[in-house]
């Protein structure tokens, strides 16, 4: 089936709200059919709007009812250019930014880094493509056009290990004006980095001036808290990126771009790029708030008027707000490609190599923080399943379950032993008791503040403090009160796992302090509220226990030292459909037993 026929017979799929990624953002500056009325303080200048195109509602309806696409006619300048190349018989390749997992046989699945032959880009949201013998639809937002279209396909996907080109022939072929092919390829990548940065700055400026500035003038429609939720710290990102692009331009060699030395710029700003973590973590909240607001027509009209007045391309606000998430995930790809075409003798080689590792670390840190934030919902659900809970919520002090398991606790004064379930979080150890009949039900008993404790390994034999014989034992000793807690595991290996877990808990606390990781009060309250709502769905306790069973038998994965591309770039992958928590529990980040 040819792609032309496929477009006629296969139904196009529409993205739900906030799940489509903006395409064509590199094609800024297209002329508008409308003039640019001024938005005055406090409200939209209705007179200015009406003089040209009527009210906000009229402007919006005119936009929706017309067949024109403001900003990129025909669905986008990029799409037009691609289809012209395809119609001329050229082969156009795109590179996957992240995984596209699908169970639909009409869609094309791929991994981050895969190269897709684009066969039809007529539609703005979904393109038709081919990988080997497979063809199908794929989201245009999941890919970027390959910078060097004439490079052999077998050279992809890009990998750091393959950056040093052993093919001497590719390094000696000439590409006009004395440049080698490799130099020309490096020129292409440098030009793309510079041009996309400039376009990105324009994009951030449009959001800050076109949306945020106008929203602040409408106190009757938006509170400051709402604006913080919708736009996050994008203004901080804008200020950071303005400085970054100036640094890049200083290092850009206009006459000989392949001689540019840009690696040091990424190294200089690697710490500042960590501000993207806050933005990425907040992005799901922004999508939810926008979804709620756009159910009211006046907000739809207002946002559309802001876009048109700022002369921005035809993408909804949620699409614009996704681009910072994309951007921070795109840097490692660009740097890997740059390193591939940088000779080891080039003055920029070592800096680009270091910059690639640095930006991967930034992406890894953002992914880790995102995982931690997702975990707080699971912790809240776990707490809601515990009977007779007392005291503050776990999330007040903790955000990570480090380890859990069954231990024998021995207490003074009669050395009474009790079988208990223990859950080690950062900062605290929670003790629970199993129900005598229903062993899947837990009752809250106590907790221990780990910040005050030191861990003591106890040899097998008689313990002098408790005057009893112990095996596989260890103690928690409070430095302030001299209080001692004695625990026994069933097997030596279980004891060692607990001792290792206590080390990991202290290491996690220290890392959080060093990186400044924290969870906002709003996020904590929302997690507990969501758990409370699930608890009141009318389901009996027994139905919610599979989560406990899952928690008991799964292992909590540790972050590897090196991540494959699909993991590094998983952060920005738009979710296709909301999933039911209990039906998809095995797909969530598991806890360690």
From TrEMBL:
Keywords: Cytoplasm, Guanine-nucleotide releasing factor, SH3 domain. SMART domains: PH (SM00233), RhoGEF (SM00325), SH3 (SM00326). Residues 185-369 form the DH domain. One of its GO terms (molecular function) is guanyl-nucleotide exchange factor activity. Its main location: cytoplasm. InterPro entries: DBL_dom_sf, DH_dom, GDS_CDC24_CS, PH-like_dom_sf, PH_domain, SH3-like_dom_sf, SH3_domain, SOS1_NGEF_PH. The keyword S-adenosyl-L-methionine does not apply. Residues 89-148 form the SH3 domain. GO terms for cellular component: cytoplasm. Residues 400-507 form the PH domain. This is ARHG4 factor. It comes from Oceanites oceanicus.
């Amino acid at each position: 089936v040819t792609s032309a026929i496929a477009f006629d017979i296969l139904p196009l799929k529409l993205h739900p709200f906030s799940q489509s990624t903006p395409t064509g953002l590199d094609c800024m500056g297209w002329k508008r059919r409308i003039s640019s009325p001024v938005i005055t303080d406090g409200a939209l200048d209705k007179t200015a709007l009406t003089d040209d195109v009527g009210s906000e509602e009229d402007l919006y309806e005119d936009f929706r009812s017309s067949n024109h696409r403001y900003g990129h006619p025909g669905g986008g300048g990029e799409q037009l250019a691609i289809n012209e190349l395809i119609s001329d018989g050229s082969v156009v390749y795109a590179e996957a930014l992240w995984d596209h997992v699908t169970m639909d046989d009409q869609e094309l699945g791929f991994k981050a880094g895969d190269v897709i032959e684009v066969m039809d880009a007529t539609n703005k949201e979904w393109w038709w493509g081919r990988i080997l013998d497979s063809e199908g639809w794929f989201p245009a937002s999941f890919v970027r056009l390959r910078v060097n279209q004439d490079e052999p396909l077998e050279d992809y996907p890009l990998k750091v290990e393959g950056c040093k080109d052993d093919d001497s022939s590719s390094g000696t072929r000439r590409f006009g004006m004395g440049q080698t092919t490799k130099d020309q390829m490096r020129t292409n990548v440098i030009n793309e980095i510079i041009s996309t940065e400039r376009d990105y700055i324009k994009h951030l400026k449009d959001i800050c001036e076109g949306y945020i500035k106008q929203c602040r003038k409408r106190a009757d429609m938006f509170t400051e808290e709402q604006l913080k939720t919708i736009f996050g710290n994008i203004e901080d990102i804008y200020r950071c990126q303005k400085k970054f692009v100036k640094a890049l331009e200083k290092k850009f060699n206009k006459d000989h771009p392949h001689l540019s030395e840009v690696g040091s710029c990424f190294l200089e700003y690697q710490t500042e790029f960590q501000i993207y973590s806050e933005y990425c973590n907040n992005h799901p909240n922004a999508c939810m708030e926008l979804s709620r607001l756009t159910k009211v027509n006046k907000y739809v009209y207002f946002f559309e008027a802001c876009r048109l007045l700022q002369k921005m391309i035809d993408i909804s606000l949620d699409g614009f707000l996704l681009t910072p998430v994309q951007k921070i995930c795109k840097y490692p790809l660009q740097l890997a490609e740059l390193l591939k075409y940088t000779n080891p003798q080039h003055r920029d080689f070592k800096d680009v190599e270091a910059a690639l590792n640095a930006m991967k670390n930034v992406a890894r840190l953002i992914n880790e923080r995102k995982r931690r934030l997702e975990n707080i919902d699971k912790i809240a659900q776990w707490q809601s399943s515990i009977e007779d809970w007392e005291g503050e919520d776990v999330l007040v002090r903790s955000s990570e379950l480090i380890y859990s398991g069954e231990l024998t606790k021995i207490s003074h004064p009669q050395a009474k032993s009790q079988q208990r379930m223990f859950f080690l979080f950062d900062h605290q150890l929670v003790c629970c008791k199993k129900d005598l009949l229903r062993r899947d039900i837990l009752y809250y008993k106590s907790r221990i503040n780990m910040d005050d404790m030191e861990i003591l390994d106890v040899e097998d034999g008689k313990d002098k403090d408790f005057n009893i014989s112990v095996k596989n034992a260890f103690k928690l000793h409070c430095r302030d009160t001299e209080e001692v807690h004695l625990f026994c595991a069933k097997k030596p290996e279980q004891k060692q796992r607990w001792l290792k877990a206590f080390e990991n808990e202290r290491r996690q606390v220290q890392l959080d302090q060093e990186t400044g990781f924290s969870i906002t009060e709003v996020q904590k309250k929302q997690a507990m509220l969501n758990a409370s709502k699930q608890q009141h769905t009318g389901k009996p306790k027994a139905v919610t226990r599979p989560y406990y069973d899952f928690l008991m038998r799964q292992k909590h994965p540790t972050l590897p030292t090196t991540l494959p591309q699909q993991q590094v770039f998983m952060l920005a992958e738009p979710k296709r459909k909301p999933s039911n928590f209990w039906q998809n529990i095995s797909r969530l980040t598991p806890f360690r037993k």
